TrEMBL record:
It comes from Phenylobacterium glaciei. This is Citrate synthase. SUPFAM superfamilies: Citrate synthase. One of its GO terms (cellular component) is cytosol. InterPro entries: Citrate_synth-like_lrg_a-sub, Citrate_synth-like_sm_a-sub, Citrate_synthase, Citrate_synthase_AS, Citrate_synthase_bac-typ, Citrate_synthase_sf. Keywords: Transferase. Belongs to the citrate synthase family. It holds the Pfam family Citrate_synt. It catalyses: oxaloacetate + acetyl-CoA + H2O = citrate + CoA + H(+). GO terms for biological process: carbohydrate metabolic process; tricarboxylic acid cycle. Pathway: Carbohydrate metabolism; tricarboxylic acid cycle; isocitrate from oxaloacetate: step 1/2. The active site is at residues 243, 298. GO terms for molecular function: citrate synthase activity.
Amino acid sequence: MSDGLEDVVAAHTVMSDVDGAAGRLIIRGRSLDDLAGRATFEEVTRLLWDGFFDHLPADLAGPLAAARAEVFAEVSAMDTGILALSPIEAMRALTARLSDGDDLATALRLLAAPAVFTAAVVRGQAGEAPIAPDTSLGHAADILRMLGKAPNQAESEALDTYLVTVSDHGLNASTFAARVVASTRAGLGSAVLAGISALKGPLHGGAPGPIIDMLDGIGGAENARPWIEAALARGDRLMGFGHRVYRVRDPRADALKGAIRRMGTRAGRLEFAEAVERAVLEILKAHKPDRSLDTNVEFYTALLLEALAFPPSAFTCVFAMGRTAGWIAHAREQLAGGRLIRPQSVYVGPTPRAAA
Ligand code: ACO
């Protein structure tokens, strides 16, 4: 048995390759450097879904915008009970109301869902009315607009870069969960809901919110070392550091840092975060000398989404907006060739007593 299924191969995939030793990510034959900041989220979704849907349009921007408008009709189901949940729970509850299926129309609605529902939930929790999608805009720009912002081009491009950067990443926990559900032929909606549920945990996509708490708790670069040392002495994990596969720096960290720099705002906050990052890496090296713990995607995710004025409680929802493209691609790939996923367990409980 492999603890945490480490090093177990559970799928052959054409979607993405995570090279943990070299710190490289390939998405459908293209390097992350070639896609982040250069291709739109709609183009990368098209790349991921290519060959896995019949009659996939050459350009997904229009169909995805139309799906946003369709999904917005479901925002009316948002009652006070849903608004009392955390944003990720509220977004999941609203997504669960969409019909299941395996076709392209279902896939597009599921891709639009986290964007439309998160914007409506964030506004609803602030006592504001939802804003309907603008189907003339690209997905990233419209997400910011549905949140009530008037985004400039640099902000829209930064969010687009983020969505592309997190669109797919090998057989991570949420993608594996989505593939397990897809293998039962339950439908894409069920697979996406499994993905959202796995993503929510703090060891996976729930890490970036607490990173803002860490930065706020540290307050100034001079407090970084004592704060970090005290956290480790308590046995806490430092969010945004360490990875199951990467033994070097996660390449997505620098893709996102570049996007923050291109926005040209909050230079002081970035400088402070870089000082905290340096201190964490130095201390972790001494704390765990036998384990290579480096910066993962979540550290600069937190800074980027903070700069775009998303509330930290909704950061995981924004991750889901990007990763849903990958979950759907993997679910379709699983359906196309994979068997039911059903591993074995070793029973270590008591045996029944023999009858007297
Ligand atoms: N801070 C402090 N110690 C850490 C950290 C960390 N961030 N990460 C790992 N360690 C320590 C563990 O405590 C463990 O120590 P032990 O052997 O004394 O118990 C050792 O390093 C190995 O940890 P594992 O949990 O076995 O490593 P694994 O590969 O399973 O964990 C994980 C990967 C879950 C990401 C881990 O590094 C972690 O918890 N990081 C913080 C949370 C985080 O940033 N998650 C986002 C990951 S990226 C993503 O999912 C999108």
